[in-house]
Design goal:
Pfam family, one: Peripla_BP_2
Number of strands: 10
InterPro entries: ABC_Transporter_SBP, ABC_transptr_periplasmic_BD, Vit_B12_bind_prot
Organism: Treponema porcinum
Shape: globular
Protein name: Iron complex transport system substrate-binding protein
Strand content: 5-15%
Structural class: alpha/beta
CATH architecture of the largest domain: 3-Layer(aba) Sandwich
Helix content: 40-55%
Oligomer: single chain
GO biological process, one term: cellular response to iron ion
Length: 297
């Protein structure tokens, strides 16, 4: 459990580390694809989101290896692993052993591998998806370079359609939401985070949306004072809901008093990949179960 939660937090922090660069560089940091470049035949992915995107774009048959934590879609488990997610646990020699012609990584974690791989003539891509649009751009890019543009476009259209349906079904009061990324120290989702956007799409109001940082460390007092109506935590968090309920001073928080603490599938909600609409749907379901009760009361 601890390892799985650590991977989720690392992925979120990697996104946070490049937010400023992304904002300055425009709406999307996806590179242009020179027409002369041939489609990659042996792709190595070093993050779960990258693996999901490659598969969603219709290029599973081009995957040569993935990371230890890549587990979706299920068939990727049949592929050999190139190592863990953390850049410190990735061996260049291991990656090279799969004879890749394209290595798909995460910015802020795997940057140091780029010059080493490029020196071997291997194309690289550093994912820095920090919003729904940047995820869509990334899916489109992978579809384009693998010759699967139509498949990728279909996936993107499906995501946009599902998200629009969720938005249209959001009516009435927007309950306040505290999203707990980490508890030692307390870390939440700020206004520029991917998760803040998902909360908004799903019909909630993030209590830390005004915070400039993407994933800020917050004080326990700030959470208690904000008095969120809903608390979301990761299902990889030890003791989960019971641990939150037992915290000193938290009993007076509305979410705790009304049993509105929800443990979510971290693999779905924390990966900026093709399951983002599913993530928004999960949040929407919980948020509106709260709204229904609030309206009755």
């Amino acid at each position: 459990m601890k390892v799985r939660l650590y991977v989720c937090v690392c992925a979120l922090l990697a996104v946070f580390s490049v937010i400023s660069a992304c904002r300055k560089g425009g709406a999307s940091s996806v590179p242009q694809t020179p027409a002369a470049l041939s489609a990659p035949e042996r792709i190595v992915t070093l993050s779960p989101a990258a693996t999901e995107i490659v598969c969603a774009a219709g290029a599973f048959n081009r995957l040569a290896a993935r990371s230890d934590f890549c587990d979706f879609p299920p068939e990727v488990k049949t592929l050999p692993s190139a190592g863990g997610f953390d850049g410190k646990t990735i061996s260049l020699e291991t990656v090279l052993s799969f004879s890749p012609d394209f290595v798909y990584m995460t910015k802020g974690i795997h940057d140091h591998l780029v010059p080493l791989l490029q020196a071997q003539g291997i194309r690289t891509y550093l994912s820095d998806a920090d919003s729904v649009q940047s995820v869509l751009d990334e899916i489109s890019y992978i579809g384009k370079i693998t010759g699967n543009e139509k498949t990728a476009q279909s996936v993107c259209n499906g995501i946009l359609c599902d998200i629009e349906k969720i938005k249209l079904s959001c009516t009435g009061k927007r309950p306040s939401v505290y999203w707990e990324v980490w508890s030692q120290p307390y870390m939440s989702a700020g206004g520029k985070s991917f998760i803040n956007e998902l909360i908004s799409i799903a019909g909630g109001e993030n209590i830390f949306s005004a915070v400039e940082q993407s994933y800020p460390v917050v004080s326990e007092e700030a959470v208690i004072m904000a008095n969120p109506e809903i608390i979301f935590i990761s299902d990889a968090q030890k003791d989960g809901v019971l641990a939150v309920k037992s915290r000193s001073g938290w009993k007076e928080i509305d979410a705790v008093k009304n049993n509105r603490i929800y443990s979510l599938n971290a693999d779905v909600v924390s990966r900026p990949g093709p399951r983002i609409a599913q993530a928004a749907s999960l949040l929407h379901e919980k948020i509106y179960s709260v709204n229904a009760q609030v309206q009755v009361e």
